[in-house]
Design a protein that fits this description.
Length: 425
């Protein structure tokens, strides 16, 4: 934790007087000078209160609109894709996600699909909700729910009654699935043409971010996110795997949307030793001029490689895909730049910025871009991503092997098989 509103350095998003001063400090380029025109803002709000077609617009709604509007200006002016305004509920969910927590949950992920449970082609509209992930050893898994089941109803409420499109139905179904700890939820699913009714008991889930398994003499390590304990857990599992006979390593960062910069720093440091030519995991630059020129940065930070890594010599592959982002890309860039690993898979997402969360007095959150990051060789991957050394795509996204959730066999995962081939296994 850092001082005053700063909750985390992420790369994944006040009283009236003190709040306005805070906004003036972090948005110096909005308006004609360095402060907001409070008179115009107050006049606009007064006009709404006195003249808008709907009476009694709440001040809370006005506050939320002002907070959202400032962020939209950043999007439009600086092409900032990642600064965001989060409601109190969204902020709470973000914090829970980064901590690996899912309160009152059963451990499933649902996505919209087309006929046969297949991913929709361009131009197709999804017409069913399919359970994509069932986390292992969690309530849904224990209740007999399977990956690929089509979700039909939750506690007797049909998904078709929850909205006109599949995304809306899934969002509303999610709130029905969640509930009080130890309470039960009944899911109606279709599986191979048969309708089943399955009951799961809701729980507060603590979901790990690191999983590992020996595939012969290869230690397969899946990192699903960069949480506060990712580095320490990875260290332990690397030590155990090497002690059990692992001679090479596959680090799977596919579908990893990122997390804390410090977690990426810790993970890279398990594989790379600090030397005169290997000093930093990542360089970060902030407080640029309006032009965005890097030379104008007022703040420059370098996150050093930490000593004490436990897997410094083993041949290594990093697996990535189009959803490997942010801290996952920081890790990949460092391991590639230091020639520590071969990168296999698809081009990564391309998120080269760092966000910080500023908690607001109303419980909401300003998820604000504060820095741009650069790999050890000085490259930015913003918008362009990282191209794999060995480009390999999955012909069927459902063939991806994973340890955190119910999974198809490793033999059907073309990217994993390519990684094993690189390592000679």
């Amino acid at each position: 934790m850092a001082a005053c509103y700063l909750t985390a350095l992420l790369v994944a998003n006040l009283s009236t007087s003190s709040y306005s001063g805070f906004i003036n400090r972090i948005f110096p380029h909005i308006g004609g000078g360095s402060t907001l025109d409070q008179t115009s803002i107050a006049a606009e709000w007064q006009a709404i209160q006195q003249n808008y077609v709907i009476r009694d617009v709440s001040s809370g709604l006005g506050t939320q609109g002002a907070e959202q509007g400032i962020v939209q200006v950043l999007h439009d002016t600086y092409n900032d894709r990642f600064s965001a305004y989060l409601t109190a509920a969204q902020y709470q969910e973000l914090n829970s996600t980064l901590g690996g927590r899912r309160d009152g949950s059963i451990g499933i992920a649902v996505e919209p699909r087309c006929a046969g449970g297949m991913l929709c082609s361009n131009g197709q509209s999804p017409d069913r909700a399919v359970i994509e992930d069932v986390l292992v050893n969690q309530p849904a898994d224990r209740a007999g729910i399977h990956r690929g089941d089509e979700l039909v109803a939750v506690d007797g409420t049909a998904l078709t009654s929850l909205g006109s499109d599949e995304n809306t139905r899934i969002d509303k179904a999610a709130s029905l699935v969640r509930g009080a700890v130890s309470s039960m939820v009944r899911l109606t699913v279709m599986r191979d043409g048969t309708q089943l009714s399955l009951v799961a008991t809701r729980a507060n889930l603590q979901i790990p971010s690191v999983y590992s398994k020996l595939l012969g003499h290869v230690l397969y390590v899946q990192v699903t996110g960069f949480d506060t304990d990712t580095g320490s857990v990875a260290k332990t599992q690397l030590q155990q795997g090497i002690a059990a006979g692992a001679t090479s390593i596959i680090l799977d960062l596919r579908q990893n949307g990122g997390g804390y910069v410090s977690a990426a720093q810790s993970l890279v440091s398990e594989f790379v030793a600090p030397t005169a030519t290997q000093k930093y995991v990542v360089m970060r630059k902030g407080r640029l001029a309006a032009s965005g020129a890097l030379s104008s940065a007022q703040e420059v930070s370098n996150d050093p490689i930490q000593p004490g890594g436990v897997a410094l010599k083993q041949p290594m592959v990093v697996l990535v895909d189009g959803d490997s982002a942010s801290a996952a890309e920081i890790t990949t860039a460092a391991l590639r730049d230091y020639h520590r690993a071969t990168v296999v898979g698809d081009k990564t997402f391309g998120k080269g910025s760092v966000q910080v969360d500023f908690a607001l007095p109303d419980g909401a959150d300003l998820h604000l871009t504060v820095e741009r990051w650069y790999g050890p060789h000085g490259e930015s991957i913003e918008g362009s991503g990282i191209t794999a050394d060995r480009p390999v795509s999955l012909t069927d996204p459902d063939s991806r092997f994973q340890l955190d959730a119910q999974s198809p066999p490793a033999s059907g995962d073309a990217q994993l098989q390519a990684a094993l081939a690189v390592l000679g296994s």
